# Entry
Amino acid sequence: MQNTPDDLVIENLSIRFGALQVLNGINLNIAAGEFFAFLGPSGSGKSTLLRAIAGFGPKPAGRILIGGDDVTALPPWNRNVGMVFQSYALWPHLSVFKNVAFGLHERKVPRDEIRSRVNEALEMVNLSGYGERRPAQLSGGQQQRVAIARTLVVKPRVLLLDEPLSNLDANLRVRMRGDIRELQQRLGLTTIFVTHDQEEANTICDRLAVLDGGVLQQVGTPARLYDQPGNLFVAQFLGATNVLPVQVERAEAPAVLVTEAGTRINFPAAVSARRGALIFRPQSVQTRNADSAADGAVHLSGRVKNVEFLGSLIRYVIAAEKTAIQIEQSYRRGDRQLAPDAKVDLAITTDQMQFLPTEP
Ligand SMILES: Nc1ncnc2c1ncn2[C@@H]1O[C@H](COP(=O)(O)OP(=O)(O)O)[C@@H](O)[C@H]1O
Ligand SMILES: [Mg+2]
# Structure
């Protein structure tokens, strides 16, 4: 995001539950109006980080600034953030209207203003006319939208959403993520969306942070993290990838890398490690025929172990280099398929490969 002031700054944030270190030295800047995602496996610390921003959970080490103000010592209700919990946490005995109005009553907002703001919030989430219903009379997706309306009605500076779609079925999840994105854009609201689903994060956010073991692994746009993962964890978490372990025979450019099967690979860049892995995506592998044997490509040979026909593409597993290499080819009507057990030559251009060190 260009030249917009940061709405949220996290400085060297660490959190422990007793002896358990759950977040470790997190630094992060999120710009005003940005749609940001926290992505990571279960237990990586996403909820703990989100809750810390909202003011819940153990007292952290480090600082949290919202709109330039240090809020680290402030209680949740003085932070100007709105949080939507995974469970929705709606009051079952109150109407939709009263659920949404709740935070405004607590803030002693006058009655007339409550009415107009609640109606406005219900309209934002396409629930005008549902005010008198009880949560139990709504579908899961509608309940989710009530939870969002209830948060938006207090006009938070930062909207926090903790796995907001995980209770919905797959189709609705896809539709709701589009709706949330659309609403966020319309309101220009700084938003953090927590998910363990890489596709969900990629389709919805401007930038994301990948977390693992309470440590921030990498921050960037979805495409940048996919193309230039900083480590093996990020490479593998952001989609299928091939990992070919190599020894470094020569580190200076052009480097010489040797696979476990003894194949020597000339790699144009310099590398600074003794051991590492070459990583490349399945769609970057060509099955070789005479005219694709371009210069600057790595050639490997193997046998087809498995074929998955997926309609728009075919996914093969190739036994090669003492490992299994995944390849994907787009499929058009009438294209030829490789047969199981067929011998196949693979070509990967080195610009489609990245070296990641595993040992200094
Ligand atoms: N209240 C708590 N007490 C003790 N440990 C907790 C508590 N909440 C979370 N944890 C631990 O902190 C780690 C991160 O949890 P969490 O932030 O919920 O992860 P995520 O949201 O990424 O799944 C986990 O190991 C979890 O068991
Ligand atoms: Mg969680």
